[in-house]
Design a protein that fits this description.
By secondary structure, the chain is α/β, with parallel strands linked by helices. It has a domain of about 140 residues: Beta Polymerase, domain 2 (2-Layer Sandwich), CATH 3.30.460.80. It is about 20% helix and about 30% strand. The radius of gyration is 23 Å and the shape is extended.
């Protein structure tokens, strides 16, 4: 008897063919990797092919693999991972695409395929600096527009560069250098002689 995951795997191999770089089935989930050059057409196929029908984009996020596996990762640094849902067939899929250039990560936008990708792609741009070619409104969404850098990159400083606060004298928000002093927190342990004894 063929399982649902085996049906999905066969449908993916049939529909995507050479566009499919890898297909992994683990823990009851299917993950595929496609090349950046095939990403847009593969995503259209995933949505439109009758055997697949992934009508809904559930999530899209960026990933920085620079320290993955304790630094033994040798592939591209940035990836975009999408989670898709087929309501028609009641199955899910994870799609991973790596940006070919680590210095300027660029991946095609899927906002024309799934409009829900708009804010997800803006978030990946804001936090990881991944550019989405074809996105018509790619600007920061969670950090301030004047923010420098991308805070989810593994090489971003832990304390950041500037902090903002409201100044009651100037009656406006001001920016100033970060004033966090690094310190080591050592928990204070208090032991009672009769603790736990009845």
């Amino acid at each position: 008897m063929t399982t649902k995951l085996e049906l999905l795997e066969a449908a993916l191999r049939n529909a995507l063919g050479e566009q499919l770089q890898t297909l992994t089935v683990a823990l009851g989930e299917v993950t595929i990797v496609v090349k950046s050059s095939d990403y847009l057409s593969a995503m259209r196929t995933l949505r439109d092919h009758a055997d697949l029908r992934f009508e809904e984009l559930i999530d899209l996020c960026g990933v920085d693999y620079s320290t993955y596996g304790d630094g033994i990762w040798e592939g591209a640094r940035f990836a975009v991972v999408s989670h898709l849902l087929s309501i028609s067939h009641n199955w899910r899929l994870r799609v991973r695409v790596f940006a070919p250039d680590d210095e300027l990560p660029v991946v095609a936008s899927v906002t024309d395929i799934w409009p829900a990708a708009n804010w997800f792609e803006r978030e990946a741009f804001d936090f990881f600096g991944i550019l989405f070619e074809g996105h018509n409104d790619l600007r920061r969404i969670l950090t301030d527009y004047g923010f420098i850098g991308h805070p989810f990159r593994k090489d971003f400083p832990v304390s950041g560069y500037v902090e903002m606060r409201y100044d009651p004298e100037q009656k406006r928000v001001i920016y100033q250098p970060v004033t966090i002093e690094p310190r080591e927190n050592v928990p204070r342990v208090i032991r009672e002689e009769q603790y736990g004894v009845k």
